[in-house]
Amino acid sequence: MRYALARLHGQRHTFYATFVRFGKLYLGPECIRYMLVQDVCDSDGEYLTEHCYIPLRPEDYVWSRVRRWYPIRFEAEVELYIKGQGRYRQLDYGFCRPSEVERVYEQEEMEV
To answer: Which domains, from first to last, does the chain contain?
Structure first.
């Protein structure tokens, strides 16, 4: 369980992460799209989780400018959900309803 996310349950915050990939999961006729991110930190730089799958709504799947291994910033809500299948189910915290996903550009400091 992601205990670092538990204290943010039900709140919307800004997070920083490394974008890994988009993906699809087919459950019968339904297709669920998701975004995989890793090394997730909050806006204060506190490390929250190693990786997380974020489910996307159809209108969210439009960030074509974000490429693999880009550092990104996004806003999302933290929710409790059931992960796993069959008897391997367990409660966990994750992100939902992401918005304002954008690439973070690191500015290099120039020495004088």
So the answer is: 3-100 (2.40.50)
